[in-house]
Amino acid sequence: MPALRFERPHKVVSHHEAADHVELTVQPRSSCGLVGQHGAGKTTTLSMAVDLLRPDHGRAANSFSTGRSLPAPAQPR
């Protein structure tokens, strides 16, 4: 089982595509780095990996999840 798996997650933050269909699998006991320009979505991608953010589409999964559920995203008024 992979330690991290990104299956084309997509996240929009403040009308900006912060993570756009990333595909990545990281095996246990391996390392991986995200490199990109300012605003490229590195922090958003890692936040989805550790269950701090929920992708709008696609899936970001990890093998060390706490299993806690996140609140539903706030709806615009």
From TrEMBL:
- InterPro entries (UniProt xref): ABC_transporter-like_ATP-bd, P-loop_NTPase
Q: Region Disordered: what ranges? A: 58-77
State the protein's name.
ABC-type multidrug transport system ATPase subunit
Q: Which residues form the ABC transporter domain?
A: 20-60
Q: Which domain of life is it from?
A: Bacteria
Classification via Pfam families = ABC_tran
Q: Name one GO molecular function term.
A: ATP hydrolysis activity
